[in-house]
Design goal:
binds S-adenosylmethionine, methyltransferase, Rossmann fold, methyltransferase activity, SAM-dependent_MTases_sf, 286 residues, Class I SAM-dependent methyltransferase, 41% helix, single chain, 23% strand, alpha/beta
C-alpha cells in the first residue's frame, strides 16, 4: 500500500471511530495521555504541539499545566477527531488550545516555535516516522523536549493488543486483514525501529535529539465489562480487523472475547488488563 492510500485508510478509520473514541466504559488512552504529560512536565507559559491529538488525551492535560500564558496546538489528520477535541476542550472550559486538521508527518509550522512536542499512540501511524521526528526537532526552540508513547511491539502478538489477547484472537483471523496490516508487514513498514531500545535511541539521536529516555510501564486498562471492551475495540486499531471479518466469524469472536474477559472479573467489578506501554522522552540537541 502506498503512503497516501495508507493515510486515507487511517483517516477513514479514525473519522469513523471519533464519535465513540475513548468512551464506552474503557479507560486506556486517557490515563496513558496523563502519564505522558507527567513524564514531560509542561511548564506555565510553554508552547506545546500535540501530533495526532485525537480527542485530546494529552493535549488537554498539557493545556491545563501551561496555563493561560501558554499555547497548545493539537493537530490530527482525521477531521472528526479534531471536532471531538474541540467539543471536549469547550466541555472542560479549556480555552488556550488551538486545533487544526493537518498531516502530522509534515507539520506546516514555523521552526523553533514550540517548547514541547507530544504524540501519544500517534507517531506509530506515520509511514516515515523517523523523518518526521527530525522535523519535530526543527520545530523545537533551544532546550525543547519531545515525548511520545507506543505499544511495546512484539512480532507474535496481535497488532496493538497486549499479549493476553494472543490466546483469545486466533492469528488465523489475520487473513482478513489487508496484507500490509499483518504484524510482520506492519513491523517491517512502520515499527521495527521502535522495538529495540538501542535502535530507538539511535533513531532519536539521528533525528536530532539527545538525553533519550525509554521507559516501559504498564497502563492499567479498565473496562466495565467484557462487552464494553469489545465495543471499545471497534474504536481503535482492532477496528481494522472487525471491518474485514465476515459476519459469522465476527459474531464468534465477539462472544469468545466477551466470555473470556468477563471470566477475569471479580463479580461485577471491571475487567482490568495491564497493557505494556513505551514512553520515549528526549531533548532537542543544539
Ligand atoms: C490511537 S489515536 C491517539 C490519539 C490521542 N493522541 C490519544 O492518545 O488519545 C491515533 C491518532 O493519530 C491520528 N493520526 C494518524 N495518522 C496521522 C497523521 N499522519 N497525521 C496526524 N494525525 C494522525 C489519528 O487520526 C488518531 O486520532
Amino acid at each position: 500500500m502506498d503512503t497516501a492510500a495508507f493515510k486515507t485508510k487511517v483517516t477513514d478509520a479514525f473519522n469513523g471511530a471519533a464519535a465513540t473514541y475513548d468512551r464506552l466504559g474503557v479507560e486506556f488512552f486517557t490515563p496513558m495521555g496523563r502519564r505522558l504529560v507527567e513524564r514531560t512536565s509542561p511548564r506555565p507559559g510553554e508552547r506545546v504541539l500535540d501530533i495526532g491529538c485525537g480527542r485530546g488525551a494529552t493535549l488537554l492535560p498539557a493545556a491545563g499545566l501551561i496555563g493561560p500564558t501558554g499555547r497548545a496546538l493539537g493537530i490530527d489528520i482525521a477531521p472528526a477527531m479534531i471536532d471531538e477535541a474541540r467539543h471536549e476542550a469547550a466541555r472542560q472550559g479549556i480555552d488556550n488550545v488551538e486545533l487544526q486538521v493537518m498531516d502530522g508527518e509534515h507539520p506546516d509550522l514555523p521552526a523553533g516555535s514550540f517548547d514541547l512536542v507530544l504524540g501519544s499512540y500517534s507517531i506509530i501511524f506515520l509511514p516515515q516516522a523517523r523523518a518526521a521526528l527530525a522535523r519535530y526537532a526543527g520545530l523545537l526552540a533551544d532546550g525543547g523536549r519531545i515525548g511520545f508513547t507506543s505499544p511495546v511491539f512484539t512480532r507474535d502478538t496481535f497488532p496493538f493488543l497486549p499479549p493476553m489477547f494472543t490466546e483469545l484472537i486466533p492469528l488465523s483471523l489475520l487473513r482478513h486483514l489487508p496484507e500490509s496490516w499483518h504484524p510482520e508487514q506492519l513491523h517491517r513498514q512502520l515499527h521495527s525501529w521502535l522495538e529495540r531500545p538501542a535502535d530507538l535511541t539511535a533513531a532519536m539521536e539521528q533525528a536530532g535529539f539527545t538525553d533519550v529516555e525509554i521507559v516501559d510501564e504498564p497502563v492499567s486498562m479498565s473496562a466495565v465489562s467484557g462487552e464494553a471492551w469489545v465495543d471499545w475495540s471497534h474504536t481503535q486499531g482492532m477496528r481494522l480487523l472487525w471491518q474485514h471479518l465476515p459476519e459469522d466469524e465476527a459474531a464468534t469472536l465477539r462472544s469468545r472475547l466477551i466470555g473470556a474477559l468477563d471470566a477475569l472479573r471479580d463479580g461485577d467489578g471491571p475487567v482490568l488488563i495491564e497493557v505494556p506501554v513505551r514512553y520515549v522522552t528526549a531533548t532537542a540537541a543544539r
